[in-house]
Structures are given as structure tokens and as C-alpha cells.
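Input C-alpha cells:
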């Protein structure tokens, strides 16, 4: 009887092993370890790596110090939106966004190339000198002042000499790209002098004429 009972127990144990072997076992996909490490990456790691990162929000932005100007309009404005409002009491700079108004009678420089915009303005004084010995003093002659820039006339002024034979012109654009050309018409003849590139210092040009 004991031998029969042991045989039945052995058969039950063998049946249990067979049923366990037949039951499918869940597996976890793995990929090779990274070079130089002994860690195996599983599908759980892939899920963590591919999970989208939390995007920063306005709520998560750091709090500005107390008293700091409000910059919310600057951070939330869409590209191309209008300039944000200036703080209360800030000087009006709307005129700075447009071309400043030049003095009355100033030569038109709106067509100058951006690279040739003047760095400032200075004064040019033209003086006519009598080249003929014993000739009369020069006065009231016509004067033409042209400002050359990149081989073209950027500005032109026409005026006359004073009783002392000279004339001063303000608003001459300053810059290495600007050069004055002065023409004095005396007794029907034009006398021309080319000045140096305009600097911030006032420039004087003498034009010698003859009878």
C-alpha cells in the first residue's frame, strides 16, 4: 500500500511540472547593454526615455524680484506684434522710430543708402579769392555746393557769396563717404574746388577766380 501511495504522489508531482512547463511565461524585451556598462536596458527604460518632457509654462516661470517692471507683455507677445507699452513716465520715443525732421532748407538725404547715413553734421565755409593782381574784390557770385557720396550727388545747395566774398553752409553731412565739391561762377566762368572727406570739424574751402 505504501508503494502505491508513493507512486500516485510521484505521478501528481510529474503532472504538476508538465503543466507548469506548458504554461506560457511572460518575457521582457531587452536590448544590449551600453558599451562600458553592465546595465541591460528593458522596455521600461525605453518608455521612460521616450516619454515627452514637461514643457515649461508661465506658471512655472521664476518669480521676478519685488519692484521689477512688468515684462509679461514682452514674453507673451507674438512675433511681429506691436512694441509693448512703455512704463508710466517714460519719455516718448515714437518720433525716434521715424526719420527725424531736418531743419527748413536742409538738403534731402532720404534717398541716401543706409550705409552712407551721416554720423552728424558740420559747417562748410566757402571763400572766393581774387587771383588777378589788382583785380576787384569778389562778391555776390553764384555758389553751388554738391555733396558727393558713392559717385553720385547726395545733396546740392545753391547760394551766393556775401559782400565779403564768402558764405557758410551748415548741415553738411559728416562721414568718410561724403565729399564736398564747390563751384563758384565769376564773370561767366565756373571755378571748381573739391574738398576733403567731411569730418566733424568745420571745413574751409578757398576758390580762386580770375578776371
Amino acid at each position: 500500500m505504501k508503494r502505491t501511495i508513493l507512486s500516485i504522489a510521484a505521478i501528481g508531482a510529474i503532472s504538476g511540472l508538465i503543466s507548469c512547463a506548458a504554461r506560457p511565461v511572460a518575457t521582457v524585451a531587452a536590448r544590449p547593454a551600453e558599451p562600458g556598462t553592465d546595465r541591460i536596458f528593458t522596455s521600461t527604460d525605453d518608455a521612460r526615455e521616450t516619454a515627452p518632457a514637461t514643457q515649461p509654462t508661465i506658471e512655472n516661470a521664476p518669480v521676478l524680484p519685488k519692484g521689477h517692471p512688468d515684462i509679461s507683455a514682452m514674453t507673451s507677445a507674438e512675433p511681429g506684434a506691436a512694441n509693448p507699452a512703455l512704463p508710466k513716465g517714460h519719455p516718448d520715443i515714437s518720433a525716434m522710430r521715424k526719420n527725424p525732421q531736418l531743419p527748413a532748407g536742409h538738403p534731402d538725404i532720404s534717398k541716401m543708402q543706409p550705409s552712407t547715413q551721416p554720423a552728424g553734421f558740420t559747417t562748410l565755409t566757402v571763400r572766393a579769392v581774387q587771383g588777378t593782381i589788382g583785380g576787384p574784390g569778389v562778391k555776390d557770385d553764384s555758389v553751388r555746393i554738391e555733396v558727393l557720396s558713392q559717385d553720385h550727388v547726395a545733396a546740392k545747395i545753391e547760394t551766393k557769396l556775401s559782400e565779403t566774398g564768402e558764405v557758410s553752409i551748415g548741415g553738411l553731412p559728416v562721414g568718410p563717404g561724403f565729399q564736398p565739391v564747390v563751384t563758384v561762377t565769376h564773370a561767366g566762368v565756373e571755378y571748381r574746388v573739391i574738398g576733403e572727406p567731411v569730418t566733424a570739424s568745420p571745413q574751409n574751402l578757398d576758390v580762386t577766380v580770375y578776371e
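The helical segments are 2-22, 43-50, 72-76. Confidence is low (pLDDT under 50) at residues 1-6, 25-30.
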